[in-house]
Hints:
Number of helices: 7
Amino acid sequence: MPNRDVLVGSEALPGVLTLPAGASGLVVFAHGSGSGRSSPRNRRVAESLQLHGLGTLLFDLLHEREARQRERVFDIPLLAERLLQAVAWVVARAELAALRIGLFGASTGAAAALTAAAEAPQRIGAVVSRGGRPDLAGAALARVRAPTLLVVGAFDAEVLALNREAMQQLVCEKRLEIVPRATHLFEEAGALERVAALAGDWFATHLAPARS
């Protein structure tokens, strides 16, 4: 599907929606630290998820001017609300309404994804965090019901410690995967491919249609 605007409240934010034939679910990406739909790492993960038969929606959580404002980048309630509005936009579309929805968050986007999952447990079927800051979700962590996978590089020591603390607060089905020899951006050979494989398996399992 072509580029299209995603309606969040009364505003439109640019996005890219891809829906493979027979998709079993749809993964909405929550970018972090001011990045957006053009993030090369998230686009590579999205392409891998599409090969798993999953639809993907990459969109800008922030307008270009907002992405330059540090207070906006770290405004987790704002990011989570826009993510929820994007999910509502998905659900309102006839061709997407039947798909189970997962959230993929990177950096601060992971906190937004977890906060959104806590606010809409009936809509969010799974969450994956890549090098994320789940700790920034605060008290929302204990209210997350969606199965949650945290993926962190072994050499990303500070973020790994924060993810281990967040794991203790999560009471949903959860798993922490540590990618060997990887740093925060997973730029090492094979590291991002490992993230994509883990995310693909997690979403394929938890977004599969319920058996009758």
